[in-house]
Design a protein that fits this description.
By secondary structure, the chain is mainly α. The chain contains nine helices and two strands. Strands 1-2 form a two-stranded antiparallel sheet. Strand 1 and strand 2 form a beta hairpin. Helix 2 packs antiparallel against helix 4 and helix 5 packs parallel to helix 8.
């Protein structure tokens, strides 16, 4: 059983999110230098991505059925990583439109996003409901005060769902670090990362402890049920393009 130094405080959460963004921007700068990219428009696009992510994580989760004004929701409402990623993706496209930058940037952003999320999720681990009850030895046990702060049960081992995600993001970053120069086409790394995260997130939602809205599934899962087939098609396109290229190379070598 695990007992965490729990701090149900929004400042702690936001602090780790800010640290994650800062580290990811440092990596983004490193990758630009390593790839020999000197176009200053890349920083404008990054700024649009951050703004889009911040706005999306709040605005795209606004539940009008709760009759909460948007300004109140912005300051104290729910936030969503998935909504933030959608907002960041839209922000990148807006940034490209504004700056007229035509090159693909997904492979530059993907490892930075995984790095940011692996750090930002530490804030979630310290401030949010860890997950659903589990009999595993690594379950997190909340004190009565911690349980009251997050609306969960006290003294019951809970799935450390955010630790699962931290492990996934660290592993994803390591894989992308290894293969970031080996993808056959620009943008393929980003597509594979997003698809892998979508599948992981759909599965981990079963132990996240989020509200179930229909057929035993949460809002993120219903969103992912729509997007995963689209991502699967994109991944199929990635590998179907890569295979002929490999066969062609072998034929020329022969």
């Amino acid at each position: 059983m695990i007992a965490l130094p729990f701090a149900g405080n929004g400042l702690v959460h936001d602090g780790f999110v800010g640290l994650g963004v800062a580290v990811s921007l440092a990596f983004y700068a490193y990758e630009q230098r390593r790839r020999g990219l000197t176009d200053s428009r890349l920083w404008t696009i990054a700024a649009f991505a951050i703004i889009g992510g911040a706005v999306g994580s709040r605005l795209l989760t606004w539940d009008v059925t709760r009759n909460v004004p948007l300004l109140d929701w912005w300051s104290a409402g729910d936030r969503s990583i998935l909504a933030g990623l959608v907002g960041a993706w839209l922000g990148v496209h807006v940034g490209k439109r504004v700056t007229r930058y035509r090159e693909r940037t997904g492979d530059l952003f993907a490892p930075a996003v995984a790095l940011a999320m692996s750090i930002g999720r530490i804030g979630c681990l310290l401030t949010e409901l860890p997950g659903t009850p589990t009999g595993a030895a690594w379950g997190i046990v909340l004190t009565p005060g911690q349980a009251a702060a997050v609306g969960g049960p006290a003294g019951v081992p809970l799935h450390p769902s955010f630790l699962y995600e931290i492990a996934f993001q660290v592993a994803a970053f390591a894989v992308m670090w290894r293969f970031r120069d080996r993808v056959p086409h620009p943008g393929d790394l980003f597509i594979c990362y997003v698809a892998a995260y979508a599948l992981f997130r759909f599965g981990v939602e079963f132990v996240r402890g989020n509200q179930l809205i229909w057929l035993g599934m949460s809002r993120p899962q219903w969103f992912l049920l729509v997007t995963i087939p689209l991502l699967a098609w994109r991944v199929w396109v990635v590998f179907s393009r890569a295979a002929p290229a490999g066969r062609e190379q072998k034929r020329v070598a022969a």
